[in-house]
Amino acid sequence: MLEFSRRALLGTALAAPFARGAAAQEGPYILGSVFPQSGPNAEYGGVFTAGVQLALQHIEADKLLKRPIRYISEDSQALPQQGVIAMTKLVNIDKAHWTFAAFTAVSKAVAPIGDRAKTVMINGGAVGPDLSGLSPYFWNVIPLAHLETRALLPYLVGQGKKRFALVYVDDPLGDAILKELGEQLPKVGAELVGSFSIPRDAQQFGPVAARVRQVRPDAVYIASFGAQQSQIIKGLRNNGVSQQLCSYSAMNLASVGSLPEAEGMTFTVQKVDYAGGDALTRRFAEDFRRAHGKEPTVYNANYYNGCRLFGLLAHELEKTNTAVTGDSLKDTLHRLKKFPLVGGTGEFDAAGNMMAAIEVVQWKGGQLVKLA
Amino acid sequence: MLFVQLLLGGVQNGALYALTAAGFALIFGATKVFHVAHGSAFTLAGYVFLYGWTHNWNSLLSCLAAVLVAVAFGVGMERLVYRPIQRHEGSFFTVFVAAFGVSIVVQNLVGVFAGRGFASIDTPLSNASEVLPELFLADVFWVAILVALVMFVALTLFLSRTNAGVALRALAQNPDLLRAYGLSSSRLSMLAFALGSALVAPAAILSAMTTGLNEAVGNHVMLLSMASTIVGGVGSLRGAALAGLLLGVAESVVLVFLETQWASAASFLVLFGFILFKPSGMFGAAVAK
């Protein structure tokens, strides 16, 4: 049995109120994000940041950590070059403990920088399949595109869609989805009847619509993001493409849902039950609605989870007075594997990918309706 | 039929490019100011129209507001940015960087106030229907052609039949002689900016209906305007307008022969072709050195 002297107990009691202050004197934990805050993809930056900020508020309110957190937001413009500049600053100058990345091309560009600096990078927005295993310090809290398409295609084929056309942005994400559809469609008894690559800055989709109509598809898969994906939807619908439109979780944006041309757009998202889920999920949803006056999206939840994951891992390390570094965070992730996160228990595999259930949804009247 | 479809689509886009390119060419030709912020006038006009539309303003009032804002922006740039710079130093690069800076500020302000991301107008005008087998046309096609024609006829009449128009052309050719005749180059510069900026408003309004807007849409407009000015011949309004039309058609029709990825590149292939083989452009005068 452990015994404490009165003096030791008294000393501990007296020191307790200052313990947090002493820890705080070590300086704050630095969290940094490489999100687009300007340009045609800036809407995502706002959505991602809102998730991180709510998690920071909850970590602070719950007094989860002894040291404060300083959050630094860098603008990637969703461009690899800008992302590299931003990430270099975060790891070399700001000495970030934990970073957030988004967009497949940007994530692939910044990963080697974080890898060299042994800084954890969290992706909650990009879905390129090759983001899995990019670095021991690069973790995904979002299901990647190959998992999304494997959930979507059987559903659509079941609805009688056999001929698919793909309009895809010419970047690593688009290339990955082209490859995935090429491999997966024959497996489910369907075929890719046409693929139409577009540059990232393309804005005119009337001519593309004419080419899409020519291949007579049953469904058109759109693999793009940001303002461009809405332009594609409008461009196709306004120019005589009346077939089923489908895509991946990037369509889960308010600006897409409010687009009349997006009516019936079918896509996949992570399954999160905001109303009937666990207490953490309900708290997240309620506080998000209070702060922003609207329903959260899975992107909000993903980056909330990404930030909360830091809180949980650092909390574990603080308990054992272990320094919070990329390696110690990584080791703790692999040791614990399961974490209480928004949407339920998040379990990570050896490559740092969080497993998540996926559901097929559709935009109907500006609302997201679950299909399967 | 694919060729006809792409050709008509290209004409529709080209008509809008022609308007923005003519505006840029008018400003550059008359004042020699490389107005990189021309795309910002497009962005502002589009978003003002969008604001009016979403707030149920009368359509004409929304159009008028868009034109006024574009004109105010152009005149404001001339008065508050270009003129002070030219008074002190006036180097090409200072003007370029200042205009570029303003366009970034505008882009961010639009993002802050109008929201970041895609915005468009839902109107039956932009919904295409099948007019012939495999040929889809929307009413906005006819509107774009008509608006472009009316604007160019009005501009041509203004430049050829009014004193102010003739003076504007004179400013482009010989500003010193213009001053010798007691005319104010300062006022004429302002007029050039006002007219040039007004020309982008119809294109911005129609773009809000067809391709939609985002806060960075001006960058694309600016690139096309510059390319059209070079292809058409620097200083030639008619050349810039025709070049705008040509680029619009080129980036559409090229899809008959090439993959969709090459649509945007087609415009710039045309530009390179002119730079290499006819540097003076379609209507520009060759200059011997």
Please give a quick description of this structure.
The complex is a heterodimer of chains A (372) and B (289). Chain A is of the alpha/beta class. Chain A contains twelve helices and 14 strands.
Describe the protein's architecture and organization:
- The complex is a heterodimer of chains A (372) and B (289).
- Chain A has 372 residues and is an alpha/beta fold.
- Chain A has two domains: 27-142 and 276-355, Rossmann fold, CATH 3.40.50.2300; 146-272 and 359-370, Rossmann fold.
- Helix content of chain A is 45%, strand content 20%.
- Chain A contains twelve helices and 14 strands.
- In chain A, the strands form three sheets. Chain A has a seven-stranded mixed sheet, sandwiched between helices. In chain A, strands 2-1-3-4-5 form a five-stranded parallel sheet, sandwiched between helices. A two-stranded antiparallel ribbon of chain A has the order 11-12.
- The longest helix of chain A is centred in the last third of the chain and has 22 residues, at 298-319.
- Chain B is an all-alpha fold.
- In chain B, helix 2 packs across helix 8 (185-210), helix 2 crosses helix 9 and helix 3 runs antiparallel to helix 4.
